[in-house]
Amino acid sequence: MPESKLKLLVIYTLAIVACFIVVFPIAWLVVSSFKTMFQIFQIPPQLIFQPTLDNYQRLFFGGQLMNAFTNSLIVSAITVTVSLVLAVPAAYSLSRLNNAVGRNVGFWIISVRMAPAFAVIVPYFIIMYYLKLIDTIWAVAITYLVFAIPFTTWLLKITFEELPKELEESALIDGATKTAALFRVILPNAVPMIASASILTFVLAWNEFLMAFILTSRDARTVPVLITALSGTHKLDWPIMAAITTVSMIPAFLFITFVQRYLIKGLTMGAVKT
Amino acid sequence: MREEYKLLLPAVCVLAFLVAAPTFYLFYTSFLRWFLRDPTGPTFAGVENYVKLLQSSDFAISLTVTLIFSAASVTFSLLLGLGLALLFSEDLRGKRIMRTIIVLPIVLPPVVVGFTWKFLLSSEVGVIGAYFMRLIGLGNLSLLGDPTLALVSVIIADIWGKTPLPFLIFLAGLAGIPSIYYESAKIDGAGSWQIFRSITLPNMKKPIVVAAILRTIDAFNSFDVIFVMTKGGPGMATHTLPMLGWKVGFYYFDVGTASAIGVILLLIVMFLSMPLIRSISR
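Above: the input entities. Below: the structure tokens describing the complete assembly.
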């Protein structure tokens, strides 16, 4: 075999092995969500089995399980909406402000984004405790804003910078104010960017665990909190756990195809040029 | 006032309200002797919380676990990320779909990453923990029950979940190296190792630093993946600093000491991330 063919073979083998290592754990969990308790406990594990929808039925008709999904959806939706309303004008402003004020505000915003969640959650817990807001979705949503506002603002700021200045210049020459230019020219051209930023913010809120875990106990539990609570029980109900985790992965599956281009921006806050 | 400032003001005001006051409050409460459920309320304690904390063996153990966990997870995720990025900078058929697959774990909820691995490694039902371990004759060994193996297990789960971050960063970094560098090196007759040493690595300095900082911050904050898998156990084998903070503050309701842990974490993380924050906001 010539050397280049051998090299190709090695490269493809390694790439496929890497994909397998990523896919197998996820696929195994999804497959197992269609098993009964008896089937899940079978050793050696069965690849061919009579699938059941039992776990999903229990999931959708079990009150506390659906409750967690509703909570997660509402909290994530509030977080995205409020951060967008504040972040769009702020991001536009930062992307056009080329002075010390803009840089200092930017520095502060990123610092907040990088702060450890645990340092934020301690004072918030005490405050929410005295406001009697513990175990409400409001406590969770407000706390999420601490990270979501800087995240969305900075992500939109670096994407707005890519919009050509000529876009708004003609509007400004025609006597429009900056605010009018934002709404008339920038926004219509930035719809895909804003959609991607919203999706990433949504995933961020949907996935968050530590803060929701500390702020909720029963009624306002989000999906990650429920998963943790159930996976800590002594007699673990593996099939229903597999079903819950499978459903909780849906946003990730849906969104990974849409936001790949923005993912690296969101994860590194623009530290890496693409 | 310039119009830009007016557009900026609402976000800045809300964020200041949400961030500034709680941060000062965190520093303040770290100097209080305060059990939230205790009716006597807080009393000023000076640096007592810090002194007791730094002297406690729980803190020493948690710090050690955090350091081992972070060092291992960061190192291996960076090495794997670099290897995968090099692999994917070749012309592969089906590259897009494979790249999407590799990236997937980073958008999964970390709690799900933890549970996925708990499910694989469990000595009750796990394909690896129950089936494979019996196949190789180690059936009596519990991957999540043995202190050393549990730490290795949570590190592996974390690497699995976080490698996409350095992978994406390095992929972008590699794409940014002008191909003419490689061409001229090949004309000069350089081997692939030489090209890697003298062209790829020097040009990847910034992406490597960025990935290392982001991963280190993330590892220092590690809570969710570990909590689902082991709850910090067995014993304190996988007990990280945020987990100590959680136990002290929200299990024993000693919010003074929990605040002190919060301050320490805040200082460590801010120290680590300062160069990155400067370079991003420049």
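Note for the figure: Residues 63-96 of chain A form the longest helix (34 residues).
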